[in-house]
Amino acid sequence: MSHQSDTQGDISPTALGRAEVANQAGRGRGRFVTGLAVILAAVGPLVSPDGATAQSGGTLRVAMTAADIPTTTGMPNNGFEGMRFLGYPIFEGLTLWDLTRSDVPAGIRPGLAEKWVQDKADPTKWIFTLRRGVKFHDGSDFNADAVIWNLERFYNPQSKQFEAQGGAISRARNSWLKAWRKIDAFTVEISTNRPVSYFPYVITYTLIASPTQFEKTGSSWAEYAKAPAGTGPFKITEVKPRVSVELSRNTSYWDKSRIPKLDKMVLTPMPEPTTRLAALRSGQVDWIEVPPPDAVPSLRQAGFEVVTGVYPHVWPWVFNVDKADSPWKDVRVRQAANYCVDRDGMVKLLNGMAYPSVGYYTKANPLFGKPKHAYTFDPPKSKAILKEAGFGPDKPVKAKIMISTSGSGQMLPLPMNEFLQQSMKQCGFEHLRGRRVGGHARRLPQRPERPAGARLRRPQHQPRLLGRVADGRGVPRLQLPAERGQLGTLEERGLRRGSPAHRAVVGSQGDRGADAPRSRAARG
Asked: Which of 177, 233, 297, 413 could crosslink 464 through cysteines, CB 3.0-4.6 Å?
């Protein structure tokens, strides 16, 4: 499979990277083409005081990169950072990710379903045999009725329990689910709109919440969010809107080998990297995501444990090729943009917390293919291609880029975008303007300064470019990550199997979810 299509211009993503992705969910209108390969942001570091969580019991205080608390209804927003912190630890799917090893891509293991089988006579049908003896945090029983209730919640807008936000997220991640029915108290049949051999992997994203608790909270998702109930190893015991969420150990968890060692975990959103760093150094928190890359050496020298991980996480610009006046409609402009990305410089900017990339996968991966354009930083070639497309010094390329304000998979996107803007200017991309998603408009500096010595300056935000996965024809679609080692929650964030922090949180194994680039369109 090639990751470039010279006829349609499907250009590879901006960055693959950090220890955290899975969903590639396409949203928006029109046709978009994934573009601009920048870096493989390979190392999403986690930091904690050395040995700080080695003992059983106690409370682990975590600073997330999220700008706000992910929703607590059982289908969290905030992309897969939400899944990692307020999804999989509290709620579970019929299948779960198998994280017993960190040196190989993760497979799946039985979750709330003990086994499953694809109907030989009709490959669009899957039969799931459910696990018996599982209780929700509210004490009610898990069974086939609960599974059907949750599928109705996500996929049936006419159901009493339909949740618009959770339904949108679920349908974006799993667009193949067509029908469902209860066979008996512990058996359900789920049908897809076409044969999907990897459906057991996809169903990991459909989390199961307690129907009984929904009724107890007045059949209101807003009220349910204050006192939710899942089946996971942690349960939510306190929600402070926009401040923090407290998770407590579920002593009645069905998998006794995975009952957490911790008493509690407190999750606090801190989107500003230097704020997270200061909180860690001052002892306000015990564990943070994504410290400023230039602070990593000093953290290690001070005795903090810095854990990094690598997997294909795309950090892309996504080109809107449907807009009438979009320069990205011309494949040559998209190719020129890719030839004007200083990937090595970006890696230096991130202090080595990344590595260069020109596709969704590394060149060593068989799925990388044999693309015609093996992009390098080649400004002369970029200028020549732009000239063929009718652009030049008197007619620079103009575009607006939508960016987000925070997120675990986003590294330090404001300085990254400014660096990208600067490196591309020399080729004729002189008017790249940025706009924050979910906030006021913000114009990226026209003449950003390159950080001295390639070290990071203090960023004001943590936005990032958002992405949509496209197939080889440039047509938007959902794509199941082929390298499943990219999926994870606690273990993905650095709680490696056998480490003190890992043992303190989840005993002998970690619980992992998924994180992926959230989908939005870069508008040309």
From this structure: 413
